[in-house]
Every structure is written in structure tokens, then in C-alpha cells.
Design a protein that fits this description.
Shape: globular
Strand content: 15-25%
Number of helices: 9
Structural class: alpha/beta
CATH topology: Spore Coat Polysaccharide Biosynthesis Protein SpsA, Chain A
CATH architecture: Alpha-Beta Complex
Largest sheet: 9 strands, mixed
CATH superfamily: Spore Coat Polysaccharide Biosynthesis Protein SpsA, Chain A
Distance between the termini: 44 Å
Radius of gyration: 17 Å
Order of helices and strands: EHEHEHEEHEEHHEEEHHEH
Oligomer: single chain
Number of strands: 11
Helix content: 25-40%
CATH class: Alpha Beta
Length: 254
């Protein structure tokens, strides 16, 4: 059994995946045993399989079709043999030993899942920590992002002291560390979401039986591109996932 397993789902972003793996290998302490799974949903040919030869703790998986975000992470669920499991986006870069810090935090706090400070490439904290999702807040996010600034600030928990840990209803799923036993108990992600909202769904299910916490003791870089705001197809997928979420959990309006 390893201390931590890590899954990165690739989709035509070979260089991002390679950079993410390189920073994980560079910064993670040798005393923390790990297994990195690369689940390749890509439609383009690439050389990601060579990462198995470059790093002895990397396993490359090619499902043969695009399983989506949650489906990609779930692809290795039955193979996990670890105490903790990390859900990591390809566009994440480590700059310190974040996994050791988060494992220690989970051990001490007894929380079920935790996320670090998630910052942009300039070091600015991203607004990825949120209150319970409502139809109103998602409507603002999807269609009226230039308005209702006070409400957006409330929804993204801007009044919190980010120098201290706190429990959060939802933290965006670009970098989450969860107890493997809990992740397996929950059945991983709900694969009815092909992409988007599956992280909100997972956070809600974690908080129903355990707890999700923000940990200020370490930070990772997220090169956040917000693809659905630029691509009409991804925007439609995002809307569909949002509707699935509210049908499942109730139409909380405000």
C-alpha cells in the first residue's frame, strides 16, 4: 500500500501533463510513497505512455475512449491501494511538497477531503472556494458575471480568513486530496456528469458523511483556462451538467 495515489486525466494536453508530473516528482518527499495514474482520454496521438519508463511510480492507462472527467478518474478506482488519493488537473504545478502537508493536515484534522491554497501563476488566490450552489449563483456565473458583485463575493467566500483552515461546502476539483477509503465508499465521481459539476457533487457527498476543508499551509498553481466560457460545445455541456446537479439535489433558488 502506498501513502498516496494520484490521478491525472489527460485530454490532448500532453505538455501540461508532463509538466504536472515533473513538478510532483520534483517536490514530493521520497518518504511519502506514491503512485501516479495517467488516464489518457485523448483523441490525438501522444507519447504519454513513455512516462512509465521515465518514472517508476507512474502507471499509464488508455481507456480507448473519452470517459469524461469523472469517468476518467473512476477508471482506476478499483486499482487504488493507498491511504489517500489525489484528484489533480493536468494544468496544476507544484512548487513545494504539497502532498505531504495535506496528508498531515488530514491526519490531524480527521477531515475526509482537503484542498490547499490554489493560486494562479502570479500567486493570486483563485476564487475556487464556494458556498452551497444555488440556481441564482450559477445563473450569475454562467450569464451575468459582470453583475451582482456583492453576491459573487458572498458565494466565493471572500470574507473568510484564508490564513486559517475552514470547512467549505464546495471547492473546485482541480486539486483535492481525499481518504481513499472514503472515495471508494462514495463510488468515486457520479459519472452521469460527463464534465463539470461532478466536483460539486463529490464535495456535497463528502460533506454529507464527512467533511471538506481548506488547508492554508501549502499552495499549488492552477493554470486555469475556464474552457466553457470560450467554447460553445463546452458551454452546453456545462449547462447540461448544471441541470443534472439541480435535478439530483433540488432546485435551491437562493
Amino acid at each position: 500500500m502506498t501513502d498516496i495515489s494520484i490521478t491525472i486525466v489527460a485530454y490532448n494536453d500532453e505538455q501540461d501533463v508532463r509538466d504536472a508530473v515533473a513538478t510532483i516528482e520534483e517536490h514530493t518527499a521520497a518518504s511519502l510513497s506514491k503512485k501516479i495514474y495517467i488516464v489518457d482520454n485523448s483523441t490525438k496521438e501522444n507519447t504519454l505512455s513513455s512516462l512509465e519508463q521515465e518514472y517508476e511510480d507512474v502507471a499509464y492507462e488508455r481507456p480507448g475512449k473519452n470517459l469524461g472527467f469523472g469517468g476518467g478518474h473512476n477508471y482506476v478506482l478499483e486499482k487504488l491501494d493507498s491511504s489517500y488519493h489525489a484528484i489533480v488537473n493536468p494544468d496544476i504545478l507544484l512548487r513545494e511538497d504539497s502532498f505531504s502537508v495535506l496528508v498531515d493536515f488530514l491526519e490531524e484534522s480527521k477531515a475526509g477531503m482537503a484542498a490547499p491554497q490554489i493560486v494562479d501563476e502570479k500567486g493570486e488566490l483563485l476564487k475556487v472556494y464556494r458556498r452551497e450552489l444555488t440556481v441564482f449563483d450559477m445563473g450569475i456565473r454562467m450569464f451575468l458575471s459582470g453583475r451582482f458583485k456583492k453576491r459573487q463575493s458572498y458565494h466565493t467566500m471572500q470574507e473568510m480568513d484564508y490564513e486559517k483552515p475552514f470547512q467549505a461546502p464546495f471547492i473546485q476539483g482541480s486539486f483535492l486530496v481525499i481518504r481513499t477509503e472514503l472515495f471508494r465508499k462514495l463510488g468515486g465521481f457520479d459519472t452521469r456528469y460527463f464534465m463539470y459539476m461532478e466536483d460539486a457533487d463529490l464535495c456535497k457527498r463528502v460533506n454529507l458523511i464527512s467533511s471538506l476543508w481548506y488547508c492554508p499551509k501549502t499552495a499549488v498553481i492552477h493554470k486555469w483556462e475556464r474552457g466553457s466560457s470560450k467554447d460553445g460545445r463546452l458551454f452546453r455541456i456545462h449547462i447540461d451538467s448544471m441541470l443534472r446537479y439541480f435535478r439530483k439535489w433540488g432546485w435551491k433558488l437562493w
